Task: structure prediction
Amino acid sequence: MDSNHIGAVVIGRNEGQRLISCLESLLNCIEYIVYVDSGSLDNSLQEAEKRGVKCVSLDMSEAFTAARARNEGAECLLKEYPKIDYIQFVDGDCELQPNWIDLAQSFLGGNRQFAVVCGRRRERYPGNSIYNQFCDIEWDTPIGDALACGGDALIRVDAFREVGGYRTDLIAGEEPEMCFRMRHKGWKIWRLDAEMTLHDAAMTKVSQWWKRTVRAGYAFALGSSIHGNSEERYWVKENQRIMWWGILLPFSILVLSIFNPIFLGLIFLYIVQIIRVSNKKSDIGNIKFLWAANVVLGKIPEAIGLMKHVKDRFSKTSAQIIEYK
Result:
């Protein structure tokens, strides 16, 4: 493929060896690379510069979001190399797979109606913790037409410019939100049956899982507040599930059991739901019950994220990034 028509934007902070692996995987197949650093205290900038990568240091006096970092990286990339047709966005804790760029660029080159193509992101160390395994399962999205991509994706510059890139005020969920706007402009998203990146979640503690899940709840609530009135009812069902399993049901059990302990039996509804969800993931083996518990019981921290968004919205407080590592 013609490498003159493709560039890459990498974002990161204090990624250490993960960033080095990321950049070296890109240097094997992409000539034009911009790294956007978000206030690293390690040697990330020096390692990137040492490899001839164009670097941008994000102004951390302004509110940080990954969306803002990606937009500034894309702006720098297209200013330096205006003839680029595609941008490969990569998170700094990911390593690009060797054949991905050729496959992705070939797909977009032959399918003008598609704005975004993504592939299989895998966890580098799924065996290190159950939480890493959850991430690896989460990344295994359906092949073919898709509603959204994640942080790693090859994106057509024309489509990116048409929608104005990512919304910089979103602390999470910025990728599906941008894809939503692209789809409503007539563009399409595709998920290839191909290996794309290795990701290192480095998530080994329940506290990390909790924070990441709170962030997901905040993202669902924020996205729905923006596009929930659309014909698609963007993320409305997700918020309804969070409301029921994370707020209404546990609150009802708590209040009713004060009057009669027999109502504690309603907890059985969670067990039933875990079994139902696990049956939809029979392909992942015995871990399906733990995965289902993660999904169902995860509605509680998601509810905290949802309520945090409601509080921020009514108090007109700017959202603050929720990091888990």
The chain has two domains: 3-203, 221-315. The mean pLDDT is 95.
